[in-house]
Predict the 3D structure of the following.
Amino acid sequence: MQIAMNNDYVRQDGDPLPELQGLAAAGFTRTQWIHHWGDDFIYHDSEIDQIARWLDELNLTMDDLHASSGREKQWTSPKPWAQQAGIELVRNRIRMTRRLEGHTIVMHLQRDSETDVLDACAERFARTFDALLGDLERYDIRIALENLFSLGGNKPLLDRVLGMIDSPRLGICYDLGHGHMIGDGFEFVRRYGDRLFSLHVHENDGVKDQHALPFTGKLDWEQATKLIAQSSYNGPLTLEVGKRPGNWEGDETSFLAAAFERATKVASMVDAHRTAL
């Protein structure tokens, strides 16, 4: 199984080149682009072209891109003008993913607030997906909805929309750390293993969303890797980790070296389970 790592392991905006150089120097050949994953930033063609040049020069492949559901430009907002602006924001990321030769955009989907009715949110998403379907087909891109832990978790909402929309363009990104925090995450993977489009691999203590390196918390990696092996997933195993206080006390070079070693170990466990099937 191939390995990849997020490009925002230090920061989520600003100049991305130093992090890309760090990934390449550590031995990574694949990345998931996660800069500006949660804001209203629009990438201009000149910026996308420069990112493409950097990836090519560093021999990095981008498989997936973590797109933005937006803040004010919010793709499932109950405000029609904000929802339309959010749809345009996602269209920007779809075109960017195609230009960078990726396959999947990872997206957040959750209720607008604690008072937002689940059915209403699901219906807004269905309208949004219908508006984006032509772009997804034109650029041959898929949407992977990520399991989240805020507002009590979004698995009921994901169940609803995945039941409503039977499309090869719509699946899930399973975030192991989020699943560990909310509970019964492994059951979620069993249910949607045939629609697993992307992976976010990181570790925590079961309480805080730490995005720490694997094998530093309480996640059952034997069970997690077995479930990945049993799914239809054939993409890279993507770390989504951060060099933060409490996660790593050494320098960036040692952090990246440890990340490469831990990712390789997790991928080897998946491969071993696949061999045993």
